[in-house]
Structure formats: C-alpha cells, structure tokens
Amino acid sequence: MKHYKYTPLLLWILVVFGNSPSHAQETIPQVEELLQQMTLEEKIGQLNLLTPGGGIATGSVVSKNVETKIKAGQVGGLFGVAGPEKMKMAQDLAVKETRLKIPLLFGSDVIHGYKTTFPIPLGLSCSWDTMLIKKTARIAAIEATADGINWNFSPMVDIARDPRWGRIAEGAGEDPYLGSAIAKAMVEGYQGTDLADPKTMLACVKHLALYGASEAGRDYNSVDMGKVKMFNQYLPPYHAAIAAGVGSVMTSFNDIDGVPASGNTWLLTSLLRERWGFKGFVVSDYTSVNEMVAHGLGDLQAVSALALKAGLDMDMVGEGFLTTLKPSIEEGKVSEVEITRACRSILEAKYRLGLFQDPYRYIDPERPDKDILHKEHRKIAREAAARSIVLLKNHDQVLPLQKNAEIALIGPLADNKNNMLGTWAPTGNPQWSVPVLEGFKNVAPNATIHYAKGANITNDVQLAKKINVFGPRAEIDERSPETMLKEALEVAEKSDVVIAVVGEASEMSGESASRTDLSIPESQKKLIQALVKTGKPMVLVLMSGRPLTIPEELALPGSILQTWHPGIEAGNAIADVVFGAYNPSGKLTASWPRSVGQVPIYHSMKVTGRPPENAAFQKFKSNYLDTPNAPLLPFGYGLSYTTFEYSNLVIDKKTVTQGESVTISINVKNSGSFDGEEVVQLYLRDVVRSITPPSKTLKGFRKVFLKKGETRTVQLTLHPDDLKFYNSQLEFVSEPGVFEVYVGTDSDTKNKVTFSLK
Ligand code: NOJ
Fold first, then answer.
1. Cα(510) to centroid of ligand 1, in Å?
2. What stretch of H or E contains 705?
3. Cα 543–512–469 angle (5° rounding)?
4. Burial bucket for residue 326 (CB in 10 Å: 0-12, 13-18, 19+)
5. Could you give the CA distance from residue 397 to residue 395 in angstroms, rounded to a whole number?
C-alpha cells in the first residue's frame, strides 16, 4: 500500500476520481492532513481501545483513568458503553477536550440482535435464509446505532466442527459455503450501502483465524492446521466478509503455525491485506496482545512490537500499544511509519462513518424510544425464531397440536425467561423475553395447560455456579428432585400430550463454556425417561447452544423440536410451530454426533484410503469398533409437517469447459398435507483431483415454499468458482475430470448426476 504526500495535484485527482468505493485504495485527504498534524503520542493514542466497565456517565462510577486518557488523546475508541447520554459525555471529552478533537469509535458485541434479541447465530443459520439473516443484522444496526454504537464486533464466522467448543453457538456451523453466504448477509445488514448513514454501523468480522478449530474444543486453545485445509475449509467465510466490504477484522486468541493471530505477519499482512486486499483496520481480541506473553513470545514490549509489525492496528483493552510503542520506537524496534499505518486505518474508518463531519451523528436522544424494541422488530424476531427451529422427529405425526388440547407443559425451561436469549446477548434483557408457557397461552388460548417444572436444569451445584456467572440461569429448586418429578407425573397423567422443554441453560454454551459431555444433563434425562413411561404422546422441545448427543432420546417414542436459544420471542415462536401456524423448515448446519468420541464430525469429511463399504464394522477399514461413522443427524437434516418428494434430476450438460457454468434442476413435490418450505441442497464431489477431495461438500441451496400437492422445478447453478479448490500451491483452480452432483433434502441424499469438466 502506497501513501502519497498530500499535494494539490493529488487532491485534484482525489476529488475527480476519489469517490470510488472501497477496493481502489485511495488515501483520504482529510485523514492525511490530520496525520501530518499528529504527534507520535497522539497517533499511538488512536490505537488504544478501552472498556470503562461500569459506564462513563454516572459520576462516581466513571473510570477516572478512562476519562483522563480520553482527554490526553490516548483513546481511539470505547466499548461496553451504551445510550446517547453516556456516549455524548464520552464523545464530548474526545472532541472538546483534546488538542485535535478526534472523535471516538463506540464498539459493542451485538451478536444476535441488540435489544430485540434474535436466536443464537447457530440457530439462525438453520433457517438457511440469508435475506432473513440480513434483515436481523439490519435491525440490530438500527437499534444499536440508536444507542450510539457505531462499530459492531460481529459477524463471528469461525467454522466449528467440534460441538464441545461453546462458541459454536455464535457462528453458522460447520460449512464454509453456507458460512460465507451468511457472513456476506450479515456484513451487508450491518453496514448497509452507506457507512455514514446514522442507522448503519461498521462491522467487524471475527475471529481471524481458525478460532473454531481450537484443539479438543477447549476455548482459547492452540490450533494446528495445514494451509490446504485452512484455505479450503476454514478461511472462506472471513474472505467472503472481506469481499463484502467489512470495515474491520478482529484477530483470534489462538496461534496459527505457532504464531498467535495477533502477532502473525503471514495472517495479517500477507493473507489479509496483500492476498485479499483488505483495506480496513484490524483490532486484537480482548488482551490478546498481552496474552502473547503467556504464549511464550516475550515481554509486553516485545509482543506489542510484534503485533504492530505484523499488521495489527488497534489493541483491545491491554494497553500494550499505549505503554510500550514509544520506547520501542526509541529503541528502533518499530518505526513511526508502522504506527502511522495503523493510525491511518483507524482514522479512515472514523472518516467513513462520518464522524469527522459530525462526531454526534450516532447520538440522538430521540432515537432509542423510536427505534429500539420496535413492534416490527419483535415481529421479525418471532419469525426468525420460528424459522430457526429444526424438527428432528415427529413420532406418529403428533405435531402440530390441536389448539384446544389438554397439555402438560413440563421442564426447567418451560416457564423460564432467564435462558431464552441465549449466550452473548449482553445488550438484551432476559426479562423482556416470552417464556414458552406464556407463548402457548398467547397462541392457543383455548388449550388447557398444566405446568410443572419437573427437574432442575442440573442438580450439580458446582456446575450451576459456573453457569450462573451472568445471573441466574440454572437455579436449583428448593424442592427435592423427587417432589418435582412427582408433580410432573401428576400433571402428565391428566393431560392428552406432554411437552417437555429441556436442554442447556444459555451459559452452557458460548465463550469459555466448553463441555466434554454433550448429553442432556442427567437431571433432565431422568425426567424425560419418567415422562415417556406414562405412555402419553410426548414432544421434547429441546434448547441448546450446540449439537447435543441424544441417541437415547431420539430412540424414544416421542417427537423432538430443536429450538436452540430462540431469543426474545422464544415462547411465541415455539408455540407458532407447535400449533402449526408455522410449519418448521430449519435444517441443521452442524452434524449431530452419536457420541463425543466421533468429534470432530462434519459432512465434508474425506473418504480415506480405506473407506468402509457400509455401516457394518469391517476390520482394517476406517471405522470404529463401537459406533458407526455416520453422525446421529447429518448436516442439512430437518423434517417438516409435510413431506417432500424429489424426482427427475437433470443436468443441462454432461461436459463442461473451464469457465462455464452448469445448471441442475430437480422436481420437488409437496406430497404431504401441509403447505411448507424445503431447503433444496446441492452437494458436489470432485471425483479425481490433485489433492484428496471431501466426500462431498455443499455448493448450492435454495429455500422454496410449496403449497400442499404442488410440484416445482428447482434450478441450481454451479458457477466456475464452485468447481474450484485451493491446490497444494494454494492456487484456486478447477481440474479436469468427473464431478458428481447430489441434490436433495440433506447431506445424505443419494440423488446423483455426473458431468465432466474438460
Ligand atoms: C472476547 C471475545 O472473544 C470477542 O468475541 C469479543 O468481541 C470481545 N471479547 C469483546 O467483548
């Protein structure tokens, strides 16, 4: 990247040609002018991101240091502050009390909605509905900016194939193709078409890179991955966010090839800026620069210099840049050019947000009341939650229920507001959420509902304590488990049907919430088993932030609706699905293992040199003694109240030349007795190529609505890039040979056509 001196000729060129969007990198004259006026200390100050904790506006709670640092020009941005009043106070300090009056950025973690909380991202991804996901991001931007936020630490696009990792809840699951489509939708939703619009905010794609591949699913753990796998499987969603114009990138905590992401020159410079052409700024994760000391890369001064030189621009919370870069310059360990580069990228973001024109453009005391928790937003939240639900089993077609049924609504999550929002919803308020019991009453006022808690989320006091860090999530009842169970059974006995709302508390997934046992907690398993024995038709409404291991529950004579943590409209959305106002259409975006021993597990695994021929164990083949290879529930799986039949798979050409597209069509018939939606999925297998291919991998999908009895021909096109992969030289190529195309209802589909690429 070249930086020009600011001359009249350059100014003329910029005025005439300079307004072209993002990709042609031009310097911004106002920013260049400002940089020329800045002292070294002021430049370093811009690289510093702080969180004042208790808030900046309430006098005694004001963190004195933050205030002093802002006034001293030592802060580029804040996060964890919200509300026009607080923002105004902070911005006043920056623009009225500093020499150069440079406005602050205001960041936040708006992960799945601001105050109108949508389902956890893993749930939302199961809608396979990128328009809907974009809409949720748009609403999040409207609400967050109404509270003064102009920078969002989202989307998280880390591919996750290990459900032990709690943060699988925050992403779009296991697949890079779907993950890329969702990454793009979210960036577009947050940033809109004009960043300076006060209702859009700068997005921050995270966590670059490979965070989802933490060894053993343990958070913050090391990652060791070859480049071919990285490029083909893990990097595409970050790349897609960058291609969509994301304004900032957050580094991950893990190391890559032995160098932590925040100090990794290959990652932040060679890949991100040089290969991908990223023009925005890079922020560390929370103290991830300082953590390089623990990683074993030197003292704070050394790791801060390493991070800056690697291409990191902003230091989140740790203040390593603030406290050590000046001595590092004096000792010749970093150069002012490097500091100017980092500072420029942050100032450019502020410029694009329109903050130099008006530092208060996101601060409007009228907006929170007008824009936050708007009725329309809640409507979309309800729709999004319903569309995220995956029907795993519908035993005896028990669902949907009649609205006048006599129902036993049982379980620790059945009348529970505290867990509906799911993990990472710090800007929401659990008390605004609709619990399932209330939703049932809203949607089916003529039903007779008998409620009983039935069990604790867990009886393990120590576990409950860890889960309750942000407030009560897994409270242990004063009554004994036996008393609660007895009450539940009484309630079940007098009802036509049992609905058991069970699963994980919200903080059993998310950051620093890894598990090695992915089953439903024991206390609830017992409840389920006892309820089944009543012989009443039973539906499990399952909540979780990750795939669970449920082989026993799936084998029971009951139905299962996977609802994730559905967000603010949880109860209403679940009731919409249970009573048939919405026919479920969600499809799993991460494979559900039979046991933790199968992890990592995903649909695009390679075949190996010794593939087993069928599910039965074969000696000297790649299989287990004690379990089949296949997951319990495959990627893309999800049922509907209706049935869909696929027929007449046709391909428009049998031979394709390089650079040509190929179109596949298939007839899909709604052969059941409800209107409904189906996600038609296309998987590709590159039969022979220079590096071992995945068994098959998602390369297209379309969600279609079909009235009962209706048949539609669905077309899916494979574009030239869909046939490409990164070869061992990391070139993106397609190689001649045979390709198999599978189209159907999930990743297990056997409907196949082939074509050859010349
Ligand atoms: C740490 C998390 O890893 C990251 O996702 C988040 O944005 C930051 N904390 C800031 O809250």
1. 11
2. strand 697-706
3. 75
4. middle
5. 5
Give residue 389's pLDDT: 99
- pTM of structure: 0.95
Q: Which residues of 712-726 are buried (b: 16+ CB within 10 A; e: fewer)?
A: bebebebeeebbbbb
Q: Which of 81, 106, 153 is the best mutation target for the ligand 1 pocket, counting ligand atoms within 8 Å of the beta carbon and taking the most?
A: 153
User: Which residue in 344, 338, 279 sits closest to 311, CA to CA?
Assistant: 338
Sign of CA dihedral 173, 179, 183, 189: negative
The encoded tokens of residue 721 equal 């890039």
Output the pLDDT for position 9: 40
The rounded Cα 215 to chain-centroid distance in angstroms is: 19
Residue stretches of the chain with pLDDT short of 70: 1-25, 54-64
Q: Looking at residue 596, what is its pLDDT?
A: 98
Which residues form the catalytic set?
Answer: 285
Specify burial of residue 332 (Cβ count, 10 A radius: 0-12, 13-18, 19+): exposed
Q: What's the pLDDT score for residue 25? A: 59
The protein residue whose alpha carbon is closest to atom 7 in ligand 1 is 153
Give the type of residue at 253: F
User: Does residue 356 have its Cβ closer than 6 Å to ligand 1?
Assistant: no
β-pair partners for 655: 756
CA atoms within 13 A on the CB side of 246: 33
Nearest CA-CA partner of 110 in 407, 333, 428, 356: 428
- Collapsing DSSP states into helix, strand and coil, what is residue 633? strand
175 C-alpha to ligand 1 centroid (Å): 22
Residue 70 CA to residue 93 CA, distance in Å, equals 6
Nearest CA to ligand 1 atom 1: 286
375-388 helix and 570-578 helix, angle to the nearest 10 degrees? 50
The torsion angle over the Cα atoms of residues 184, 186, 189 and 191, rounded to 10 degrees, is -80
